[in-house]
Amino acid sequence: ENQKEDLGQEVPKKRPRESPNYFVAIPITDDQILDRIEDVQELIFTKEPDLLRALLPVQTMHLTIIVAHLGTEEEVKKAVLALKKSKTKVEAILQGKDLNMTFHGIGQFNNQVIYVKMSEEDQKMLSRIAEAVEECFTEMNLDISGSKDFKPHLTFLKLSKAPRLKRRGFRKICSDLYKEYEDRYFGREVFNQIDLCAMRKKKQESGYYYCECSINVGSSGTGDSKEQ
């Protein structure tokens, strides 16, 4: 680049992509789902104790809608506003009906991320909701470039959480560790809340992420949004 400048050529200014520090999530709080996830985690741990550090605490269970990089307090405020604005759009999609999210079976990405799957039918509806939220963030000019295509999945084990294992050559999680649960029904969660969570702030006492703002939607969504 210096050479280009020396030659008087334009150096294209690329906006550096900052790594995400916030995410928009749907919390999963149904006891049956969380208990079953704990059962699977326990089973995996008994078969492979080394994986303990790769297990995600059930208190943090959520579906990620988008990730964002919010560099200033001003941007955090804008994101809170964007989430509040999305409430009207989400309500319009739900049309006063409850959305039951059904979780069934276990899936994996590259044998490094293990998650509970969500039924195809519910995914369609949720994808529309995710799109509505995304639109509101884009309208506010917020950086959500780190977001991938929305594929709702409930992650409960991530090899990247235990980097030491990788260094010891642990590169794959064998499906034998959880095959008893591969086609098991986990439960149903009624969709009624969306959170704007901070990745790097201290978690709440409950163990869940620090929330800048939560909106209530669906039939229980009559209450207003909560803000920290």
From TrEMBL:
One of its GO terms (cellular component) is cytosol. Residues 20-216 form the A-kinase anchor protein 7-like phosphoesterase domain. GO terms for molecular function: protein kinase A regulatory subunit binding. GO terms for biological process: regulation of protein kinase A signaling. This is A-kinase anchor protein 7 isoform gamma. It comes from Pterocles gutturalis.
